[in-house]
Amino acid sequence: MAAEVTGHKQKAAWLERVLPPVEQVQPGLWSIPVEIPIAPLRYVLVYVLELDDGIAIIDSGWNDTKSYETLVNGLAVGGYQLSDIKDVLITHVHPDHFGLARRVREETGARITLHRAEAATLMTHADDAKNWTAEGFSAMLSDGVPEDEAREFSPTGREFRSLVSDEPIDILIEDGHQLDLPGWNLEGIWTPGHTPGHMCFLDAERKVMFTGDHVLPRITPNISVHSNNPPDSLAKYIDSLTKVGDISLKVDNCEGLPGHEYRFAGIKERTVELVEHHEERLEEVRELVKSRPGITAYDLAAELTWSRSWESFGPQQRRSALGEAVAHVELLHQRGVVTMEGYGIRRWRIAEA
Fold this sequence. Notes:
Elements: E1 4-5, H1 8-16, E2 23-26, E3 29-35, E4 43-50, E5 55-58, H2 65-77, E6 85-89, H3 95-98, H4 101-108, E7 111-115, H5 116-119, H6 128-142, H7 147-153, H8 157-161, E8 171-173, E9 186-190, E10 199-203, E11 208-212, H9 233-249, E12 255-258, E13 264-265, H10 267-291, H11 297-303, H12 315-334, E14 338-341, E15 347-350
Parallel strand pairs: 5-6, 6-7, 7-8, 11-12
Antiparallel strand pairs: 1-13, 2-3, 3-4, 4-5, 9-10, 10-11, 12-13, 14-15
Helix pairs in contact: 9-10, 10-12, 11-12
């Protein structure tokens, strides 16, 4: 592994499958593990930034009672209360990161900050949830998923909408935005790929980069193509990895503070490792398409190498695997390596030289 562990207590807890401790990373900066109902992740790391007049948090946790209580109790360890929160900075709108933001705002009046492209994915109109569900189901059928299986693991817009707030965002930011947080020199770095508007945050003076789900020390973040993530999501992700790695080199001893797992050093080395992983994956997809002309994305997902067997995957795991297979074959298509054919069901072949 290219990443060097700096959060040793977090790493030990990860291996023991327990919740890590609340930790003071440096003066005015705390890490709070907030429980989430997702195995095997188990928790999201919420970061507390001390301000002159209160605190800001980066990400919030799942919108349920256990996450809320874990967050409140974690704040108390650092000597804070929920009412101290003035700002909620969101890396991306997945429920484990964005879920509690609305409740925190309702109870504290805190401002929610989000990248403009990420805010555009929220279901703010009456028909958005219905359209999102229909688009997702149709895409699965076109990728070769049998209809009964597509109905089983096709997510619904109503389900997703119940987990995240669709209310207007207070502060919309772009790449390079300087956050107005007294005592901090925090810059937003746009890192599309995992989601269209994913953000990392860098404070060069404090030598920390909050990497969200963009760069994790051990896990490879899921990069999928679906209704809210465009066909070039993997291309954007790879470009964003290079961008973040290069930025980290400008900061001596820059520490990565991720959304899951544990703190780490060697951001550049880890981004290179992740790019290499995806290039290897692309080659595996190319070989499968070459050996099986006319293969669907669903069959690609079933035949790709995973850490566990395809047969052992539940609906959520198969949906994620399918999304990754689509992302990789789409990038091969964009590079001119494969071509798509078929009406109704999309099938893939090696492009003619």
